[in-house]
Amino acid sequence: MTIAFPEWFSQPYFYDKLTDREEAEVEIFAKVKDLMDAEFNSEESYPIQKQQVAVLAKADKGYPAAGKDGQ
Question: pTM (2 decimals)?
């Protein structure tokens, strides 16, 4: 499963342009990131705690899973 915003798939070389800091792609990414951050910071967004997300992100990158204190 792949999850991304429409421009990521529909615009050829979007990621390359983003990493090259092309103005249009950076603006699109900034707007999408702001929306995602606002949703994540919403108490209603999802019943998972921010600390749990950090643990999952570390585990996904091959880091050892954090202990019960999140460290």
Answer: 0.55
